[in-house]
Amino acid sequence: xxxxxxxxxxxxxxxxxxxxxxxxxxxxxxxxxxxxxxxxxxxxxxxxxxxxxxxxxxxxxxxxxxxxxxxxxxxxxxxxxxxxxx
Length: 86
Known about the structure:
The chain is an all-alpha fold. The protein has 4 helices and no strands.
């Protein structure tokens, strides 16, 4: 048994969702920032960049949802999700 397995460290079965979930969030935040800049400076190029960022953010949620469902299957073996009571 090796102390460090690079394949398991770089490509674990259930960690892709954790990595991918931040990408659309960052694209959306940058898109909103570009939109504010476009309105402030009245530049159409910044508005186009805002539109592209928000569009790609919307598209990139599809693999995030797919990897989230796969992580749920691997980690929780598709158990029914329950609410925590406070």
